[in-house]
């Protein structure tokens, strides 16, 4: 895992983000923390220029609107032409028709190197019954040790059918290219009590795959391992009076300080 | 007070926020801190879908624009149809004609369970002379022990005339349904030195009333008591080198850690 | 330097910001930290109203779009009519044609008291070969002790030709009105590892010049000295487990606590 992290720090990839205004500041700071560099631009008249000078593109539909959807398509197609890795975060797919339809339209028009979502979002995109509850995965859908085999099969099938890496975060993470699946344990439940843990993971995964374009599956898995491990490190810093706001700071700090050796030792995964 | 807080933690209400991009991240984190869950969506093509799956709606006009104003109206009307509590935060009413007019249009088109603002904003909506200074209450308008009776009468009348709960924050808070008024003391002056203390209070109040729809007045008052108390708890954590940025973190942390017993003991209010 | 800082704290200038959604919360909090007060508004129907009640205007093109560009022009022209200091932050000029062209159009239509950018952005606006890399200055362009004379000449010429104060931040800052140049040393490299250090400096500089309209050059230089010094103070607070997220908090905290005497003693500048 360490080589994927180190490659981010060595190459400092510039990542173009078309993302929601809720967690955009956290996404920018986590990109800087992991060794990348962020730029945000969502006007159709400039997204092709911007994405051309970047190493990767992160499309997040968290607060999509009539102006940003065409910009996402333009940017994605240009990034494809440039050969840059592109990641989709289908925030809230399943929660509104606009989100589900937009995510599907984006997947039809753009070749995504990776799709990073929670299990409810992936189910919604797969056309399965999804219990999406807003932007969070529903407890009914949650990946557990009990339903792990079924969930892994679903994620693997989604990846294979869509010729992408499906990167699904939760209590147990699943990252699959349709042939192999990384099953990753780690993190801490408090990560669901801050806004943006999913968005930050998408931004960081975009940096990892942009720096490791020949190893999309492994790099995405490394980003997931890094985030889970940093969640654990951040949790250990918590004092009794700390809450989710301090945790957010500690999490980004942990990403800032994470080195390859710590990741190598702390990553907890199996390959199925 | 404790039962209203505990009901939020038990029911974990999903709150739809159409809010400004300045403090939106803080609003999301305070909703998670108090036990709720946030979703932000402001495109007219999805706000009705989104608000339908939520328990309450928080409309904040802090950075309103030509696209979000129609979305606010659509969402508010749908939430009314669904019977969900809806809160208005008329940020900057009085500071521009667009804001004052928009707040009034929203109040004509939507039934609001509560309107949360500062005294200058409420005066502007009441058609009174207001000394609004941007988005903050003007010192001239501030509610003090000296003008408390007049201010309470104004807030009570506003609530009665508009068939809503008027929830007015300041050095002394006033929360009235036109019949009874909670007069709440607490908080700390540094709360006006961070951005978003008002917006966060609105978001949290939306969660409290969404979880306690039969007790809008009491639940709004409980949210105000909780925020004031958490301001005091956060202030006590401040070290000499800390400033407003650390205070913001401590405030959200305090909301995260607040339990019903602490609120019950610490709430400082009279009912007029 | 101290008088410029103290004048901000005495007059508490209300600053109208039309700025990007990435760092807007940090800009609001640093304005409050330094003694000013923020308001954000970007709809064309209200920006003239809003800027009229303010003391200064901060225009930042970080996430410009088709709606905010006309609003920037309207607000800037109105602020000029009102005689309020106006600052331009040409974020990413050089990174897309839209940004370069928009920054130039703004400079043609509005009289700016100051333009705050990094050296790559200023070079792009000056029509020189620029190695802009996204929104950060490129290493190739960086102002160092070796190229200081050339860089100073460039910044001075830009200021003179545009009848503005050019305020260029980097490892060495240059603030010039075309006749005199403040050469300012200080800060810490970690400032480039948080998002928003440039945007925050622009917002704070807008407050300083709004409170000191007769001394634009000196006030801008004071804001730069204050930010550099606060970067050093924040760095000294860093514990081993801290990273860029904690640094951001410490930086804003340091601005909150900075007094005139500390600034006077700590400012490290020459006047060329």
UniProtKB/TrEMBL annotation, chains A, B, C:
Coiled coil: none annotated. Pfam families: HK. GO terms for biological process: thiamine biosynthetic process; thiamine diphosphate biosynthetic process. Its cofactor is Mg(2+). Pathway: Cofactor biosynthesis; thiamine diphosphate biosynthesis; 4-methyl-5-(2-phosphoethyl)-thiazole from 5-(2-hydroxyethyl)-4-methylthiazole: step 1/1. GO terms for molecular function: ATP binding; hydroxyethylthiazole kinase activity; magnesium ion binding. Keywords: ATP-binding, Kinase, Magnesium, Metal-binding, Nucleotide-binding, Thiamine biosynthesis, Transferase. InterPro entries: Hyethyz_kinase, Ribokinase-like. ATP binds at residues 116, 169. Belongs to the Thz kinase family. This is Hydroxyethylthiazole kinase. It comes from Candidatus Scatomonas pullistercoris. The gene is thiM.
């Amino acid at each position: 895992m360490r080589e994927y992290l180190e490659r981010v720090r060595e190459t400092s990839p510039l990542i173009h983000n078309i993302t929601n205004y809720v967690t955009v500041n956290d996404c920018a700071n986590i990109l800087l923390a992991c060794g990348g560099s962020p730029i945000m631009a969502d006007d159709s008249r400039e997204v092709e220029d911007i994405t051309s000078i970047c190493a990767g593109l992160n499309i997040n539909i968290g607060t999509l609107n009539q102006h940003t959807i065409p910009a996402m398509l333009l940017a994605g197609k240009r990034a494809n032409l440039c050969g840059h890795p592109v990641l989709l975060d289908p925030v809230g797919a399943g929660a509104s028709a606009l989100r589900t339809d937009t995510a599907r339209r984006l997947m039809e028009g753009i070749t995504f190197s990776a799709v990073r979502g929670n299990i409810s979002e992936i189910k919604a995109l797969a056309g399965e019954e999804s219990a999406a509850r807003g932007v969070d995965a529903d407890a009914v859908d949650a990946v557990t040790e009990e339903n792990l085999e079924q969930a892994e099969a679903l994620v693997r099938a989604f990846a294979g059918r869509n010729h992408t890496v499906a990167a699904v975060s939760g209590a147990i993470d699943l990252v699959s290219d349709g042939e192999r699946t990384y099953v990753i344990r780690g993190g801490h439940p408090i990560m669901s009590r801050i806004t943006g843990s999913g968005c930050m993971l998408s931004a960081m995964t975009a940096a990892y795959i942009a720096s490791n374009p020949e190893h999309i599956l492994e790099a995405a898995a490394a980003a997931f391992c890094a985030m889970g491990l940093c969640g654990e490190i951040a949790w250990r810093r918590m004092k009794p009076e700390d809450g989710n706001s301090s945790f957010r700071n500690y999490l980004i700090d942990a990403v800032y300080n994470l080195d390859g050796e710590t990741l190598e030792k702390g990553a907890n995964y199996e390959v199925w």
